[in-house]
Amino acid sequence: MPSPNRFSAIQQIAGRPPVPTPEVESLESLWARDVFTLAKMKDALPKAAFKSIQRTIRDGGKLDLSVADMVAQAMKDWAMNRGALYYAHVFYPLTSLTAEKHDGFIVPQGDGTALAEFSGKLLVQGEPDGSSFPNGGIRTTFEARGYTAWDVTSPAYLMETENGITLCIPTVFVSWTGEALDKKTPLLRSNATLNKQAQRLLRLLGEETIAPINSSCGAEQEYFLVDSAFLPLRQDLMLTGRTLLGAPSAKGQQFDDHYFGAIPERVQVFMQDVEHRLYRLGIPAKTRHNEVAPGQFEIAPYFEAANVATDHQQLIMTVLKNTAKKHGFTCLLHEKPFEGINGSGKHVNWSLGNSSQGNLLDPGKTPHENMQFLLFCAAVIRGVHLYGPLMRAVIASASNDHRLGANEAPPAIISVYLGSQLEDVFNQIRAGDLKASTDGGLMSLGIDTLPEFPKDPGDRNRTSPFAFTGNRFEFRAVGSGQSVAGPLIALNTLLSDSISWVCDQLESRMAGGATLDAAAMGTIQQIMNEHGAVVFGGDGYSEAWHRMAVEERHLENLPTTADSLPVLTRPQVRDLFDRMGVLSPVELESRFEVYGEQYVLAIEVEAKVLLRMTRTQVYPAVMEYLDALAQSLRDQEYLGLPPDRSSAGKVAQLNQSLLAECAALESAIAETPEDGVEASMRHCADVILPLMTRIREAVDGLEIIVADDLWPLPTYQEMLFSR
After folding, report:
1. Where are the domains positioned within the chain?
2. Over 50: is that where the pLDDT of 616 sits?
3. Using H for helix, E for strand and C for coil, what is the string for 361-374?
């Protein structure tokens, strides 16, 4: 029989009543019900005021502050008619989480009454504490002032819970001295510089009518669901989001029977509830399915403008976690909550385009003839080759380090997968002999009742960290618990830099007498000669690729955060962000300090939790089992049976090893350097993590020997397969 705590949890799960399926409503009645959309603004505002706001949102025009009072009044009336008494400026500090400051609409009057007011000034600006969030030294306690400022390009919405309704207003968050303390400000800057450089290139290609250009994002969110009855019994899941201990289940994902399998009924009800809430918030959830690992699932929204998609991605994580509680689940967004099975990523599908030229990364049916696409795609190749280490740095975290490099997660070496068709086109250009591009042809299945259908001209590569997938690039290395803002900022900025370089080349070559076509082909050929080493279509997991990438192609392999995060301090990276007007040197340095400290703190918390679990839960259980074994040996001797001391000896040996490694880990935590974040990161990566691994090996070895009725921790089998 399992231990009482585990047994109680399993009994609770078996007897858990089903949560009622959400009431079925039409998509039309659900969609964006809780969003202050342009359509709602149009109905509520004077015509001139609405057109002013519309220009700001759609065309990137300057916000007219004289309109703010009218917008604030309309927004307040709409929210209060829905039951809201508070509003919140919502922002995204460097924690990767969402922050919000709530204020009431209430304004007391001198006669003992109260009015509800919301002015344009309150809409446009708020003032949270700028020193209490991670800021890398930009703000100190005696320099605490910070500001939130309304981001008119991302719509306000209502967040409804059982405790009430709040009007939520997306904002940026900056210091009193003007530095960005958040993830949204540099994202908006990166979109602005990308728009500027992309328009410049389109004008060189002869385009005259060019709508504002924006990057787009569709982020596939993977996650695990564990029954909430197990959470109080697992300190590691509660405090770190992952299991620090746990022997593999006899059955894991080896049968490949969970991926795209029938969604468990209880999980499907949860998914429907999540989608119901997301649709009300105007978030276009498009896909749901079982993922590869048992207990793992995915939700994928349709692509949106990068800024809005980033806000929506934060909301998706919030809704997943909050809705899971209602259904008796705990939603795990950690990149590697369970050892030995697939981790969770957040594949960021990224492109750029506008309403006049469309998707600028769409190759069309004849990509070899699509000069616009070839130039933009070549600019991506150049940017990734020059700044691949930066791409690795912006997805670096203690949690994502456990995932990269195996189980369908991409390797830490950043390369570009183009697919066979496009790789052939760019190789033809490199050789100076562009003639044609291959066609995918038709897929015939040999059965008359099944239709033939067009076959894609290139396969997919699940081992590539940055793969072209038809009309966009998929950044597969982003972690499931991370904000997509950092990756989008890096991609927008490196592409802006490369487009600027491409434009300089075109102008220089045409000034020398070359035609536009000749200048373009010469520029792309130069890119492939100088940067084609980053293009790779093979197995990204193979040892041969790792050797080739580093030794022959001179790509960097940065396996840990301690290896990759210092990239942010390189002069080349500092110059890139400063030159493109996205992050100042001070802002970039602050991010290195913040993210480095977060890495160190995450590992220190894990190490302390591991010590506590080992000493207060595992060790007592092992000692109780050793006592039982000792009594059994005495009974065997009393009965004249040959005593079997092998099990007791193995348990005792593992226990002694465990105690020694725990003592070493405790010393290592105390010895963490305090003379710089880089030294602290190296100590965590090189000293603390290996000790934690050795402790885990000992404990997991004990788990498969110690009597099941004595083992205190819910097992992998129980957590992954109990529904």
Report:
1. 31-182, 191-443+452-598
2. yes
3. CCCCCCHHHCHHHH
Going by C-beta distance under 8 Å and a sequence separation of 6 or more, which residues neighbour residue 46? 70
What does the pLDDT look like over 324-358, one tens digit per residue?
A: 999 999 999 999 999 999 999 999 999 999 999 99
600 Cβ partners below 8 Å, 6+ apart? 672, 677, 680, 681, 684
Section 588-602 average pLDDT: 96
Q: Distance between CA atoms of 152 and 66, rounded to whole angstroms? A: 14
Q: How confident is the model at residue 635 (pLDDT cuts 50, 70, 90)?
A: confident
Q: How far apart are the first and last CA of the chain?
A: 20
- Per CATH, 31-182 and 191-443+452-598 having the same topology is answered no
Q: What is the pLDDT of residues 46-60, one digit of tens each?
A: 999 999 998 888 877
CA angle 103, 108, 113 (to 5 degrees): 130
pLDDT of residue 618: 96
At a CB cut-off of 8 Å and minimum separation 6, what does 451 contact?
A: none
C-alpha 130/C-alpha 138 separation (Å) is 9
Residue whose C-alpha is closest to residue 363's, from 410, 302, 307, 424: 424
What number of CA atoms fall less than 13 Å from residue 547's CA on the CB side?
3
Determine how many CB atoms are found less than 10 A away from the CB of residue 608: 15
How do beta strands 106-108 and 466-468 pair?
A: unpaired
Mean pLDDT of the chain: 90
Taking alpha carbons only, the member of 294, 283, 301, 492 closest to residue 383 is: 492
Q: How far apart are the C-alpha atoms of 128 and 99, rounded to whole Å? A: 10
Rounded CA separation 710/627 (Å): 12
How does DSSP classify residue 402?
G
Q: Which two tokens stand for residue 252?
A: 């894991």
CATH of 191-443+452-598 given 3.90.1590.10, 3.30.590.10, 3.10.50.30, 3.75.10.10 = 3.30.590.10
Query: How far is the C-alpha of 36 from the C-alpha of 75, rounded, in Å?
Result: 7
Nearest C-alpha neighbor of 335 from the set 262, 404, 255, 248: 404
Average the pLDDT over each of 268-282, 482-496, 634-648 and give the range with the smallest value. Answer: 634-648
Joined together, the tokens standing for residue 164 give 């009430």
90 Cα distance to chain centroid: 19
31-182: CATH homologous superfamily?
Glutamine synthetase, N-terminal domain (3.10.20.70)
Q: For residue 32, how many other CB atoms are within 10 A of its CB?
A: 17
What is the reported pLDDT for 432? 86
pTM confidence score = 0.94
CA–CA distance, 691 with 607 (Å, rounded to integer): 9
